[in-house]
Amino acid sequence: MSTVQISASDVNKLRQQTGAGMMDCKKALTETNGDFEAAIDFLRKKGAKVAASRQDRESNEGVVIARTSEDFKRGVVIELNCETDFVAKNAEFVAFGNAIANIAVENKPATIEELYNLEIDIENSRVKIGDAIIDKTGKIGEKIGVSKYEVIEGDKVVAYIHGNYRLGVLVGLSKAVAGADEAGKDVAMQIAAMNPVAIDKDGVDATTIERETEIAKEQIRAEGKPEEMVEKIAAGKLNKFYKDSTLLNQEFVKDSSKTVAQFLDTVDKGLTVTAFKRVALGA
């Protein structure tokens, strides 16, 4: 065991030179009796080299975590990836994903880069999330990282995680009324199952509308319909697309006699969805 006293300035100097995490730098200096060159080699062998060498590896396994703030006015969903299902199911890895999601809810970063610069508690020390991820990469031996980060805000935000952390959904509702929690979960389950493209037809982007219209026209022409009927029939097919693919117009999965919009109206008059996000692992 080293008897050399490692100062905070030494740790910071090594961190500036290598970009490695604070705890990694402290450990490297301790293990090498304060020898900076040896400490750099130590870091490269233990963590930094593993992180760098695995950047071209596929990391399509992992967990999706959805979380709301305590006042249910804000929600985040993150996808934390790794390379194997074995690591994805590890309790420590899942806990790490939950900790990152909690920090995102509390600190409101705008991007993954900003999220990586926030600090997290690791072994009774505060380190940047980005540094903690590098450290985890070194320890686990797999490429890991946050690939998706989504945020919504609203009068009532509900989070839902489906399929053992394989899919996460956030739903923003227009009012925080009695029954909103259960209704929000029901709508989130609808989104998980049916994967709508938008809340309603006004939210469908022009590119999607153009693509669906062109597909419909080609189908109609292939059926041998007269050209003068193509536009009218295509408009009907587009309306069918809106019904099938936009959330409020979809048949409610738990009661097909209602649309999602009609279901929400039974919970509270005028209650509707203001935003949603759906993140599926590896999608």
TrEMBL record:
Q: Which UniProt keywords apply?
A: Cytoplasm, Elongation factor, Protein biosynthesis
What GO molecular functions are on record for this protein?
translation elongation factor activity
Q: Which domain of life is it from?
A: Bacteria
Give yes or no: UniProt keyword Lipoprotein: no
Give coiled-coil spans as residue ranges. none
**Where does this polypeptide localize?**
Cytoplasm
- Which residues lie within the region annotated Involved in Mg(2+) ion dislocation from EF-Tu? 84-87
List, for all copies, the residue spans of the domain called Translation elongation factor EFTs/EF1B dimerisation: 75-282
Recorded hits in CDD domains, A to Z, give: UBA_EF-Ts
What job does this protein perform?
A: Associates with the EF-Tu.GDP complex and induces the exchange of GDP to GTP. It remains bound to the aminoacyl-tRNA.EF-Tu.GTP complex up to the GTP hydrolysis stage on the ribosome.
- Which family, according to the similarity comment? Belongs to the EF-Ts family.
Q: What is this protein called?
A: Elongation factor Ts
Q: Which species is listed as the source?
A: Mucilaginibacter aquariorum
Taxonomic lineage from the root = Bacteria, Pseudomonadati, Bacteroidota, Sphingobacteriia, Sphingobacteriales
